[in-house]
Amino acid sequence: MIPAPAALSALEISGLSHRFGRVQALREVSFSIPQGAFCALLGVNGAGKTTLVSLITRLYNSNSGEIGVAGHDLRRNPRQALSKLGVVFQSRALDADLTLEQNLSYHAALHGIAPAKARLRIGEVLELVDLSGKRKARVATLSGGQQRRAEIARALLHRPQLLLLDEATAGLDLRARGDLLALVRHLIAEEGVSTLWATHIFEELQPADRAILLHRGAVLADATCAEIAGDRTLEQAFLAMTGATAA
Ligand SMILES: Nc1ncnc2c1ncn2[C@@H]1O[C@H](COP(=O)(O)OP(=O)(O)OP(=O)(O)O)[C@@H](O)[C@H]1O
Fold this sequence. Notes:
The chain has helices at about 50-55, 80-85, 100-110, 115-130, 145-155, 175-190, 225-230, 235-240, and strands spanning about 10-20, 25-35, 40, 65-70, 70-75, 85-90, 160-165, 195-200, 210-215, 220-225. By secondary structure, the protein is of the alpha/beta class. It has a domain at about 95-160.
């Protein structure tokens, strides 16, 4: 009997290493994210999260290793791979002086989406992030949480299979952080988009969430938060693994 083909991963990272001069930012990082899954990339400042996100978005090339997005090798087929990727960076990608619609129209055009299709898709993504009523509002007038949701709408315009979020909750209060994470979980159910959620905030995650624990550029654990934590809190388990003592 011919075996069924393995389901395509949304993200496949294999033996990825990167150094900046004398700093080894990533060491032999390997993991994969199946389609339609949520995965946290958890690590303290300097762990290598932004470096990993920068390599996946091809801001620069890795020294060694491979990255595949939705079955496309990033080095060999960058255009196809990047077309399957949506990214919410730490820094803002929307122009605060323009309306949400103007911003999204501009980004839709960058993705080569024709104006008539873009108008429809803008309506869809705004509904997904619960900002339909803000279509004509200037981005500067939106709250911090609304602006992050608008960034997610921008990242979803071209129907990516993988959504990367780098410290998406930075600067938000506790409630807005919870709302944003709930929205991302909802998107996985609605759009089937896989998510890599890079964060240093342990409390954001739920016991059943899968977390890749990155420390000094290496993967220390890849399991559910409950499995990593055992009978401790996730943060205590992390501190024990890295040799530090809990405060
Ligand atoms: N452009 C660069 N030049 C030199 N060293 C760098 C550069 N970017 C990152 N590094 C170093 O690489 C390591 C990983 O940094 P990175 O920014 O990826 O970590 P991070 O987990 O994203 O932390 P943060 O949450 O603070 O952004 C750190 O030691 C950092 O100092």
